Amino acid sequence: MTSTPPSLEQLPDPAIVLRATAADWRSAIRVAAGAFEASGLADESYGDRMIALVEEYGPYIVIAPGLAMAHARPGPDVHRAGMVLVTLAEPVAFGHAHNDPVSVVLGLAATEADQHVAAVAALANVFNDETLVPALAAATSKDEVRSLLGATSAE
Amino acid sequence: MKIVAICGAGIGTSEILRVNAVRALERLGIDAEVTATDAASVGASAADAQVILTSSELVSAIGRTNADVVVIENYFDLDEITAKLELAVG
Prior knowledge:
The complex is a heterodimer.
Chain A: E1 16-20, H1 25-38, H2 45-57, E2 62-64, E3 67-70, E4 82-92, E5 102-109, H3 117-127, H4 132-138, H5 142-153
Parallel strand pairs in A: 1-4, 3-5
Antiparallel strand pairs in A: 2-3, 4-5
Helix pairs in contact in A: 1-2, 3-5
Chain B: E1 2-7, H1 13-28, E2 33-38, H2 42-45, E3 51-54, H3 59-62, E4 68-71, H4 78-89
Parallel strand pairs in B: 1-2, 1-3, 3-4
Helix pairs in contact in B: 1-4
């Protein structure tokens, strides 16, 4: 592991997009791709690869009610490991049997296959609180998002 | 006992499932090795696994296996994961 992704409560402003408008799941993932690009974490083509993963395997990335974890394999279009968080003004369907519709898209990028382990374990701690996704979806400021993520992870 | 968590890319969701499966097994008092991998390499890594944990969308990508395939709907719901693991291994 060469670098540690920023922890959730330290997400910089460009990595957070609030109340985004997305017509469908692809455009929701595109918003996340735009946040990766704005943060300098990955090129726009990473968005194509995140979409391709869903096209290949289905909407399994919707891992909990209202929450999609958009990601793809490491690749040359990923510059640094990191995360972005997008909330949607109107939830969109990803086609998941149980966890639709999605109101929060958490994007992950890694430069090495095993890089996520520590950061993702931290995610599991935070999101095991089932009130977090609705609270994030309702957040009106980026500080509120950081505070929600930090407050929950400190439990 | 060996348990494998599967996802499409092997970098994200399977690791969340792995972390929460370890917690569920602690609750159950079951000692098991839990690993995370992607659907493309499941054949090799799950050859000697007793249980495969995954999402319903990925079941068809797993192919033929002797392991119990356990489908998890909410990866953050420890109660669901614990109950389903208890059924599979208890």
